[in-house]
Design a protein that fits this description.
heterodimer; A: 5 helices; 2 strands; B: mainly alpha; 3 domains; globular
Chain lengths: 67, 218
């Protein structure tokens, strides 16, 4: 699943460690999500969305076509 | 978009794979040299022999290599990215793993010394143990280990790591479900030694750990 996490993080000048600390996960988890190797759980996706004050679908894109 | 240096990725690409290999190699060296050290000391104690210069030299080398590997391993895990400090969860995770490793080392040494045999391998595998030692091990495995594992799962690992270990557990279960009966049939057919519960336990456990680590650090 594609996502804008790396861009959003860079816009705020946060390191992966800073983001990981705020999400209460490891840096490996942040890195794995950013590189698309791991899709976060729904609770973590909501947490990410709240942190950036955005909707989940504004951050994550499952590639499905919208009607 | 230009990414600020503060936002560098952790362990990108090949560097992460090399790091995984370094941790694996250091862990293997550490386990091997600790095993050699325990074996040497146990054999020496049970035989009540004199400490010859050759014995002391081999022991010193084993201890030095084990200490060096432990230090490098600690250094490697302390700063996984080589850049930023560990997060709170990563520190707790590391400390629990180190504590568990030390507990395992103490238990291993206790088992070897309590077995009272001059064969370190037998001391690990099937030598009789004093009842109080066996009872203590049972309590640790039945009470302390589940409690520590529960706390570790709840407080120290995140969902990425839990997912990795779940995958490792699934692979380990398949290895057990398929491998154990294969060994059993091979034994009954006369072309393999009798199945060893200890060997099956370690094969299953290592499968879970290796697959879990590989998935976490891939």
């Amino acid at each position: 699943m594609k996502n804008r996490l790396k861009v959003l993080r860079a816009e705020r000048d946060w390191s992966q460690a800073v983001l990981a600390e705020q999400l209460d996960v490891s840096r490996q988890a942040v890195n794995a999500i950013e590189t698309g190797k791991y899709d976060p759980s729904l609770p973590l996706a909501f947490k990410i969305a709240r942190l950036f004050d955005m909707k989940i679908e504004e951050i994550f894109d499952d590639g499905a076509q919208h009607d | 978009m230009m990414v600020h240096s503060m936002t560098e990725e952790v362990d990108p690409g090949r560097a992460r794979q090399w790091r995984f290999l370094r941790i694996l190699a250091l862990g293997t060296v550490l386990l091997f040299t600790v095993g050699v050290t325990i074996g040497l000391v146990a054999a020496h104690v049970t035989r009540d022999g004199d400490a010859s210069p050759r014995f002391l030299a081999i022991l010193a080398v084993a201890v030095a290599v084990a200490a060096g590997a432990a230090w490098l391993l600690l250094r490697e895990t302390r700063r996984p990215t080589g850049e930023a400090p560990l997060t709170r969860k990563e520190r707790l995770n590391r400390n629990i793993l180190i504590g568990s490793g030390l507990l395992g080392g103490v238990l291993g040494v206790t088992m070897v010394l309590a077995a009272g045999t001059d064969d370190p391998l037998a001391a690990f595998l099937d030598a009789p143990l004093p009842p109080w030692v066996a009872a203590a091990f049972i309590v640790i495995l039945a009470v302390v280990l589940p409690a520590l594992s529960f706390y570790w799962q709840k407080a120290a690992v995140d969902e990425l790591e839990i997912d990795a270990y779940k995958t490792g557990a699934l692979y380990a279960l398949y290895v057990y479900m398929i491998g154990a009966p294969i060994w059993w049939f091979a034994w009954r057919g006369g072309f393999a030694p009798e199945p060893s519960g200890v060997a099956i336990y370690f094969i299953t456990t290592f499968t879970m750990l290796i697959v879990g680590f590989a998935k976490k650090y891939r």
